[in-house]
Amino acid sequence: MTKESSPLFLRRAKQLVTLKGTSEAPVTKAAMKELHIIENGSVWMEAGKIAMVGEDEAVAKAYAERINEAKVIDATGKLVTPGLVDPHTHLVFAGSREQEFNMRLNGATYMEIMHAGGGIHSTTRATRAASREQLYAESYERLQTFLLHGVTTLEAKSGYGLDMENEIKQLEVAKQLNKDHPVDIVATFMGAHAIPMAYQDHPDVFVDKVIEMMPRVAELGLAEFNDVFCEKGVFTPEQAERILEAGKQYNLLPKIHADEIEPYQGAEVAAKVGAVSADHLLKASEEGVRRLAEKKVVGVLLPGTAFFLMSEFANARKMIDAGVPIALSTDRNPGSSPTESLQLMMQLGCLHMKMTPAEVLVAATINAAHAIHRGKEIGSIEVGKKGDVVIWNAPDYSYIQYHYGVNLAEKVMKAGKLVVDAGRIV
Ligand SMILES: N=CN[C@@H](CCC(=O)O)C(=O)O
Ligand SMILES: [Zn+2]
Q: Which is the closest atom of ligand 1 to the Cα of 229?
């Protein structure tokens, strides 16, 4: 047996954050502060999964006869957590939009740029023009950066094709990346990301077109979720509801970009259609928040977007206290959040959304996993789950929120294999 396929024995973590007992349902309220830490903790992983978790002495004793078989990784003095999960990215696209960033800094707004044919439309033009190879290469680079920063699973949306051929092209690239790259990708169809300029005067015709794409996407097995940008000047709440209800007929589960720029009843639509998650929520109404809590819709908050668009942050504190299970995400996209650092999102969660270090960690691991229906496979360090684990260059869980703006992921294990060592991909 080579060391590569051998068991992996991670030993003596100063703090081993297990998040035990959270696989069944998203974590809410005071439970978001409970990390279920084992001190001097160890994990035995084999065949891609976690086989045992506990105090070092107990695990060492249980596997005493097989220790020589294992690749041993010493985590003395370090924090160990589940691999981070990013539940909302626009991973596959071509190009960048730094000129628009410059325009915004000179006074233009995100929506003005989009309505003038830039923004999402500009990335759509670039993505349509790009070959699969180019899209693959650009997205692969982003995946590498995600992995280096401790992300072991992410969700990726289409939405820069906006026609059958190009939406499928994006989703097929995501599928290929999922096969080739260690980071697991969960795909979302987002044909309703923008109304193409040619349909601006008859948006309902485009809504019909989006719905026509769904059977093909489902038949090819290219996506699990269906998302829509419900926003004033983009898709109305009624159109969003129609699109999300249509997706359900093809087993595409609803997600929604809700109340990002203006209050627009997005949270209410999410609750009504039984969405798995409602994302953004910067301007969600009180009633909308109440309904999300009632229906246990995961609120995926994207503080990078508020930060980068220089707008108000979502009211995470109020949502958590109301009982909405909260997850965090980068929203990686070329317009409103060009970053792969979920670490920075956790830090912004603490600094600008009144979340605590424990809450942001829950939000970026197990609740993020629930937001993409992976709560039973990833997001916590428990027997039977995937061996997705990060060793941090940090002594405890508060440190990674406190030492901000740098990458603190030291070693990353994906499916029980060491894939990042000393901050480099191996
Ligand atoms: N708001 C809609 N979609 C993305 C931005 C996409 C873009 O600007 O390219 C978001 O979630 O922020
Ligand atoms: Zn988004």
A: 2
- How far lies 92's CA from each of 81, 320, 332, 333, in Å? 27, 31, 10, 9
User: Model-level pTM greater than 0.95?
Assistant: yes
Instruction: List, by residue range, all CATH 3.20.20.140 domains of the chain.
Output: 84-372
257 lines ligand 1 (CB under 6 A): yes
Task: Give 157-203 pLDDT, tens digit per residue.
Answer: 999 999 999 999 999 999 999 999 999 999 999 999 999 999 999 99
Give Cα 11 to chain centroid, integer Å: 28
How far, in Å, CA of 416 to CA of 343, rounded? 22
For 377, half-sphere exposure in the C-beta direction (CA atoms, 13 angstrom radius) is: 13
CATH for 84-372, among 3.40.630.30, 3.10.310.10, 3.20.20.140, 3.90.79.10? Answer: 3.20.20.140
DSSP state of 215: H
Query: Candidates 2.30.40.10, 3.30.420.40, 3.30.1490.20, 3.40.1360.10; correct CATH number of 8-82+379-425?
Result: 2.30.40.10
Beta strands in 158-224 (DSSP E): 184-192
Q: What percent of the chain has pLDDT over 90?
A: 99
Assign 253 to helix, strand or coil: strand
The residues, ordered by sequence, that sit 6+ positions from 101 with a Cβ below 8 Å of its Cβ are: none
Q: How far is the CA of 12 from the centre of ligand 2 (A)?
A: 39
pLDDT bracket for residue 4 (50, 70, 90): low
Q: Which atom, in ligand 1's list, is nearest to the CA of 305? A: 12
Cα 305 to middle of ligand 2, angstroms: 9
Q: pLDDT band for position 5 (50/70/90)?
A: confident
pLDDT of 1 reads 41
- Residue 2: per-residue pLDDT: 43
Q: Which own/partner contact pairs does 231-238 have at CB distance under 8 Å and 24+ positions apart?
A: 231/257, 231/260, 231/261, 231/262, 231/264, 231/266, 232/261, 232/262, 232/264, 233/111, 233/114, 233/115, 234/194, 234/195, 235/192, 235/195, 235/203, 235/207, 237/264, 237/265, 237/266, 237/268, 237/269
Residue nearest to atom 11 of ligand 1 (CA): 331
The token pair at 101 is: 């960033």
